[in-house]
Amino acid sequence: MALSGSEATNLEEREEEEAFLFRAVRIAAVVALYWFVSITMVFLNNYLLDNRDLDAPLFVTFFQCVVTVGLCWLMQLLSKFCPGLVDFPSVKFDLKTSREVLPLSVVFIGMITFNNLCLKNVGVAFYTVGRSLSTVFNVLLSYVLLKQTTSLQALICCGIILGGFWLGVDQEGLSGSLSWLGVFFGVLASACVSLNAIYTKKVMPAVDGSIWKLSFYNNVNACVLFLPLIFVFGDVGRVANFSRLTDLGFWGMMTLGGVFGFAIGYVTGLQIKFTSPLTHNVSGTAKACAQTVIAVVYNSSSKSLLWWTSNMMVLGGSSAYTWVKGREMQKTTHREPQDSAKEKLLPEEKENPGV
């Protein structure tokens, strides 16, 4: 039976509404999953690193790398036996590829180690401000290493972030809870995050552009590089004398920390896939704000108005920088087709496009 024009239109509208509703629910679910995994991972790492009976941050980080390598192998096996359910690239260790990834792995070790040391010393509440300078370092190192210039608007955003950072340090100092060592590690972590982004772009061709292969080689290299470090800095001795060494609950939490460390890579890619890089950055900023509020409420802390202002400056500056860079990328994308069209013009037409 044929449908009339109005009935067909109404049916199409209902289908569009259902499709839109499905996409909206899917995006909301993905963002919620990213928030849950990311916030849980930070609090879990803080719990593991803040253990007064075990002061071995390098060993905790090393163990998480071992778990990630194990999960990569597991996902590869699941992908072979359940190809329709699990999609994971084949990861066979190749020494040549490992050497090509090694410079990035050194930066990667610095990033995750200084991140954890910053978290250990400043806590979750100040963690967002403590390692907020990654955007500033990104601008600075892009100019120094890649000779890329930055617009005035983006530099103003970086100025706001710097102002929020210094205000946060000042307020944390006035409250008597400032750890200069934690701030120092936070600055180093921020620099390593920026370097990690730069070196990742250089190394990606060596792993066929696969972020999972890169994660596998990064963590394999990290496991090897961490071994001398945990001996030199005495983490092995402290673990050997740990009273809960045979406690399955402790090792369960350690393993869970590694699982969440692996999962954050998956949900980050998932959020970018179903939204956009710009939306992912905005979501990350909002997540950091929620994370700070949860930490303050959980610890029953009392923070001054200026302390909160510093957080808002850091988060606001980061969001504004993301928006500015997004607009600049859009302009570049729109300009490229015009430039290619001009290249197709005849020489006379290039000189006088108005003809």
From TrEMBL:
<feature type="transmembrane region" description="Helical">
    <location>
        <begin position="20"/>
        <end position="44"/>
    </location>
</feature>
<keyword id="KW-1133">Transmembrane helix</keyword>
<keyword id="KW-0812">Transmembrane</keyword>
<comment type="function">
    <text>Putative transporter.</text>
</comment>
<dbReference type="InterPro" id="IPR004853">
    <property type="entry name" value="Sugar_P_trans_dom"/>
</dbReference>
<dbReference type="Pfam" id="PF03151">
    <property type="entry name" value="TPT"/>
</dbReference>
<feature type="transmembrane region" description="Helical">
    <location>
        <begin position="126"/>
        <end position="146"/>
    </location>
</feature>
<protein>
    <submittedName>
        <fullName>Solute carrier family 35 member C1</fullName>
    </submittedName>
</protein>
<feature type="transmembrane region" description="Helical">
    <location>
        <begin position="181"/>
        <end position="199"/>
    </location>
</feature>
<feature type="transmembrane region" description="Helical">
    <location>
        <begin position="152"/>
        <end position="169"/>
    </location>
</feature>
<dbReference type="InterPro" id="IPR037185">
    <property type="entry name" value="EmrE-like"/>
</dbReference>
<comment type="similarity">
    <text>Belongs to the TPT transporter family. SLC35E subfamily.</text>
</comment>
<feature type="domain" description="Sugar phosphate transporter">
    <location>
        <begin position="26"/>
        <end position="297"/>
    </location>
</feature>
<keyword id="KW-0472">Membrane</keyword>
<feature type="transmembrane region" description="Helical">
    <location>
        <begin position="248"/>
        <end position="268"/>
    </location>
</feature>
<dbReference type="GO" id="GO:0016020">
    <property type="term" value="C:membrane"/>
</dbReference>
<feature type="transmembrane region" description="Helical">
    <location>
        <begin position="219"/>
        <end position="236"/>
    </location>
</feature>
<dbReference type="InterPro" id="IPR050186">
    <property type="entry name" value="TPT_transporter"/>
</dbReference>
<feature type="region of interest" description="Disordered">
    <location>
        <begin position="328"/>
        <end position="355"/>
    </location>
</feature>
<feature type="transmembrane region" description="Helical">
    <location>
        <begin position="56"/>
        <end position="81"/>
    </location>
</feature>
